[in-house]
Give the backbone structure.
Amino acid sequence: MVNPMDFNTFPLTNLCGTLCDIIGSERPRNATGDVPQIKKLVEEKANGRVDRLLLYNPDAVGQWIYEKYYDFFDNVRTYTDVTVPFLTAFPPKTPVCFATMYTGAEPAVHGIQKYEKPVLQVDTIFDALPRSGKKVALVSVAGQSMPKIYAERPIDYYLMKYDGEVIEKALELIQEDEYDVIEVYNQEYDDKMHRSWPTSPMAQNALRHYNESFGKLMHCVEKNWQNHDTFVSFSPDHGVHRTFYGLGQHGKNIPKDMNILHFYGVLPHKA
Ligand SMILES: [Zn+2]
């Protein structure tokens, strides 16, 4: 176990190209690097190649929050095989981090270096996957960072009212079995901890909801994607801390904000 006061060292830039590789897609232009733990997992459970990605992005679950509320995340551990500690992008704000997660580029390269949500002008996973013939759905609460910075790509957008509707739509799409890649964004913990603090009762409930929602998605994949090898992720963007005036916040160069854990699994096809 890493000392919680230390910074993680493995940069989030490594993820994007790896996700492309395992589904047989070209990478976006700036995505170098690799996550060897993912390659090894996919090698062991799916002979090195999957044909589906189900990417779940719960906002603001810092590593220390996961460790403090370990018992809340049983579904995450049930359906995933490896845990990878990352140092997220700086500043640890939602659009900055998600831009790095799905371009593989540093903020200075992708261009989002503060809390703003312009349409990304660089090559992204949502360009590279369709170029390689992959059909992609992005399911999110409307108006949030993910759909805004990744707008104008040749993918399908499902923009919903709030997290519950996002999950319902994602379950529908999994059942229809039309998409190669589904990205699912949820935000309740980020909302609740900003309104209160990172360990408040309502923020804790939001964490429980992330775990429940992830379990629903996984159960649905197990049932409906039996002919596919599916790579799944539980991948937050950044962490969180409590300010001196008491509210939840993030954006500082401190381990509580910068250290995140990602969880990856493979649900192999049923013979
Ligand atoms: Zn965020």
About this structure: The beta strands are 52-58, 82-87, 136-141, 156-160, 181-186, 230-234, 241-242, 248-249, 259-267.
